[in-house]
Design goal:
By secondary structure, the chain is of the alpha/beta class. About 35% of the residues lie in helices and about 10% in strands. The protein contains eleven helices and nine strands. A seven-stranded mixed β-sheet has the order 4-1-5-6-7-8-9, with helices on both faces. Helix 5 packs parallel to helix 8. The longest helix has about 30 residues. The chain starts with 20 loop residues before the first strand and ends with a strand.
Length: about 375
Amino acid sequence: MAGMAPADASGGERAAADAPWVVSLGDSYISGEGGRWAGNSNKAGDGWSHTDRAHDPVTGRSDPQRVYGASFDNGCNRSDVSEVQSVTLDVRRLNLACSGATAAAVRLLENGGVPFKGEPSQAGQLQEAATGQPVRAVVVSIGGNDLGFSDIIASCVTRFLKPVGGSPCAPSAAEQVKKRLPDVWQAAVNALADVKTALGRAGHPVGSYRLVLQSYPSPLPDAPRMRYTGEKYNRFTDGGCPFFDRDLTWAHDELVPQMSAVLAKAAQDGGAEFLDLSRSFEGREVCSTTTRQADLVHPPTGETSEWMRFVTTGVSQGQRQESLHPNSFGQQALGTCLTLQLQRPADDNRCTNTAGKGPADMRLEPLA
């Protein structure tokens, strides 16, 4: 099957053959995009100061398939530490998500679903994989591409890098977001409906499995927590965070919470649990004052490094599409969040990190 990943790809013990499946569907934030990187660094030696997990120290070369496997060929970029692969439960893991996917890539073909990057409908793949197999949970990340998040962020970057007369994107972007959010809600509700239909056809009635819709962690800090003071070009060349102060604060304080609220409503209306990840990377965002880049003296760690990939052109370090996606530390943290969610009775929860601790020290609390 196109989306199948090894059940033991997370590096843990192989689950029993009759263990239930936990399946991930949706877009790049759950497919594992960015998982090639362990923190960020601008020091090129030794695989960018040991942040490039695709780097072979023996040959001195990097091969992204070491992390993304065959999914690198079509750009789905399902990493070996994607959220579902980082779950620490006695389950088999199946990652059907694909970088760049909209809700249409999840939906059943008869309901307007479309093949994406050469792969069938994700709900269709789920139906096939789940038939005759026990399923513990299906977790869905969708909506960011329906909103046009990457295009919005790209516009903000372009405005910051404009040689003369650049201005914040927030005023115009906020209006775009306001107009698009109702469609994001509808897209998420429709996707959840098709997931339940696919599972029902596979012999899994509602109530026999957990269905979780999650939101997105903020990739950027607000302006007061920006490591590079002043709206200078070193935010791009050194930090990989080329944004005006106003745009940083808008994205952190308004855009991410608005998206999370819409997805929470979609989960409620679509009969799913909601996992709020909007503040799960607080203090671990790109260019946050409480993180640092790795170098040959300071290796990357989950306690000190950024958990989000910085903005890159894709010329020297990896791919541009990896920008502002959870790196390996971030994906392991999200795996911990999902583990905690599934260890508790079904409910809506918020996952946050513990200051100064690594990805294993996430916390879950009821969503008020």
